[in-house]
Amino acid sequence: MEKLSKKEQDYLRGYAQALQDLMWRMTGANSCGKSYDPIDFSDGIIHSYAFDFKDGGRRHPLKDYKDINEIKECMCKEAEAWIIDG
């Protein structure tokens, strides 16, 4: 991927927030210091304190993902692991 549309960014913001809310409710623990703002975007980059994605950092290049579904799958797997392990 090279770019996300505004609609895709908004969708991923809502998806990330929903996962964060579920993680909190299921474990009682905050997965990061910014659960109120779990994901943001800039030119070709996903920014996230809440999700490690593939590289474990804070900045995640869009070019590492083939499409929005791969991004969602990374977040969902992290949320699942947090809840199971939490």
- The arrangement of helices and strands along the chain is HEEEH
Helix content: 40-55%
**What structural class do helix, strand and pairing data support?**
mainly alpha
Output the radius of gyration: 12 Å
Order of strands in the sheet with most strands: 1-2-3
Task: Give the beta-strand count.
Answer: 3
Which whole number gives the mean pLDDT?
Answer: 88
- Runs with pLDDT <50, length 5+? none
Question: What does the largest sheet look like?
Answer: 3 strands, antiparallel
Name the beta content range: 5-15%
Shape category: globular
Q: How many domain units?
A: 1
| Total DSSP helices | 2
Euclidean distance between termini CA atoms: 32 Å
Characterise this structure.
With 86 residues, the chain is mainly alpha-helical. It has one domain. Helices cover 47% and strands 10% of the residues. It has two helices and three strands; from the N terminus they run αβββα. The protein has helices spanning 6-27, 68-85, and strands at 40-42, 45-47, 59-61. Strands 1-2-3 form a three-stranded antiparallel sheet, with no helix packed on it. β1 (40-42) and β2 form a beta hairpin. α1 runs parallel beside α2 (68-85). The radius of gyration is 12 Å and the shape is globular.
